[in-house]
Amino acid sequence: MFDNISGDKLKDAFKENKNVRFATIAVGGVVVLALGYFAYKAFIFNPAEQKSMEGGYVGLNYAAMDSTDLAIEELAPFVKKYDGKKGGEVAQFTLARQYMAKGEFAKALENLSDVDVEDTYVQIHAIGLQGDCYSEMKKWNDAVDMYIKASEMDINDYTTPMYLFKAALLTELKLEDPAAATVMYQEIKDNYLAFANQKTIERYVERAKNKKVK
Fold it and tell me: Distance from CA of residue 161 to its chain's centroid?
């Protein structure tokens, strides 16, 4: 569901926005947010959280190696034990991604909806991935709602156009509302030039504009 994002682009994002504080692990061609920042913060600034970070690394490592079943086996009880702790939230986000990889979108959605982290960008992706789950479950309206929520949570040149584009596609193709989709595509074209150029957004604008509702 995610577009491929190069390491250089992520590094640039980190430098340009102080809110970007997560590490990334590529799992199955999808960017998984490992939240290394929270591990650092827990160990250095909040020793009381240390136990919640220590036990999760085995499961995170399995996830990094695409060992989905082993990752779930390790992470599921860990999440239950440390729910609400930083390590538990890190693990829960990763656990949700493992369920998505197995096509178990209802379980993934349950975990993603419970993720509560301090990092704005990670929270945005937790919401956006809920949109992906709803989309896979063919719950188009719910998916669009989540994508729009993710796009509006923190306006920036990375997550805002990415999730707005997902919302526009579903609005056009699944909800069959080309007029509303045109507004979204046009917003990307007007305000997010780099993303618009990458996606050649003009062709989407013209397609939606010229589409007749059945």
Answer: 13
CB 88 within 8 A of CB 76: no
User: What gap in Å lies between CA 20 and CA 65, rounded to an integer?
Assistant: 24
Query: Residues near 44 by Cβ (< 8 Å), separated by ≥ 6?
Result: none
Rounded Cα–Cα distance for residues 129 and 115 (Å): 11
Read off φ and ψ for residue 23, nearest 5 degrees.
-90, 160
The residues that bridge with 134 in the sheet, in sequence order, are none
Angle of CA points 50, 75, 112, to nearest 5°: 95
pLDDT tens digits, 73-115: 999 999 998 888 888 898 999 999 999 999 999 999 999 999 9
**127 neighbors 94 (Cβ within 8 angstroms):** no
This prediction's pTM: 0.77
Closest CA to 88 of 115, 66, 112, 120: 115
